Amino acid sequence: MNAANSLSIKLSDNFFLNEFIISQVAERHGYRNEPNEKQIESLKLLCVNVLQPLREIINVPIFINSGFRSFDVNAAVGGRFNSQHLEGKAADFVVPSMNLVDVFNIVLHRISFDQLIYEFGKWIHVSWNGELNRKDVMISKKVYGKTVYENVKGETLDVRSI
Predict the structure, then answer these.
(1) 140-156, pLDDT tens digit by residue?
(2) Is 158 helix (H, G, I), strand (E, B) or coil?
(3) 8 Å CB contact between 148 and 142
(4) Architecture of the 3-152 domain
(5) Which residue intervals of 1-160 are DSSP H helices?
(6) Can you spell out the DSSP letters for 84-107?
(7) DSSP assignment letter at 152
(8) Which of 36, 14, 18 is nearest to 26 (CA)?
(9) Strand partners, 64
(10) Using an 8 Å Cβ cutoff, are 89 and 147 in contact?
């Protein structure tokens, strides 16, 4: 697949492949960040089952910070060795026109997912793994310089718990 072809691959009504493969880290280091067909299919499933339904509920644009990551890109950003970004099953996103906690709670209550993580109060990580969805709900924060993940307790994310 070449970069020109990736621009036109539509994953769902509002999402295109190029949104999920653009990486400043890849560009800076000269890494290739091109998914194979299986990874593209996983990105489509993520869009069709999670991101597109969310987009239709909130009716405002969703901006992808990080979607698919090649091994080199994942290592360069400090991603976990088993990150679902490597498989095209995860995306990190923001919705600038909405409160991120509200968006998080919409996903939590209205959409099926594998993992949902409120990351550092700055973006949301969501993944899709089909029938294997775990419904893991967490927040991440830095504690003494290390990333710590805590399970969300209760029915909604409360900003006081962050």
Answers:
(1) 988 898 888 888 876 66
(2) coil
(3) yes
(4) 2-Layer Sandwich (3.30)
(5) 3-7, 17-21, 24-29, 37-46, 52-58, 71-76, 100-110
(6) GGGGT-EEEEE-TTS-HHHHHHHH
(7) P
(8) 18
(9) 93
(10) no
Token pair listed for 108: 């939590």
Rounded-to-integer distance, Cα 5 and Cα 111, Å: 31
- Residue linked to tokens 């969310």: 54
Sort 45 into a burial class: Cβ within 10 Å, 0-12 / 13-18 / 19+: middle
pLDDT band with cut points at 50, 70 and 90 for residue 7:
low
In the DSSP assignment, the letter for residue 3 is H
At residue 4, the pLDDT reads 47
pLDDT reported for residue 152 = 81
Strand partners, 93: 64, 124
3-state class (DSSP) for residue 136: strand
Backbone angles phi, psi at 118, to 5 degrees: -90, 105
pTM above 0.85, yes or no: yes
Residue spans of the domains in the chain: they are 3-152
User: What backbone torsions phi and psi does residue 7 show, to the nearest 5 degrees?
Assistant: -65, -30
Residues 6 or more apart from 133 whose CB is under 8 A from it? 112, 113, 114
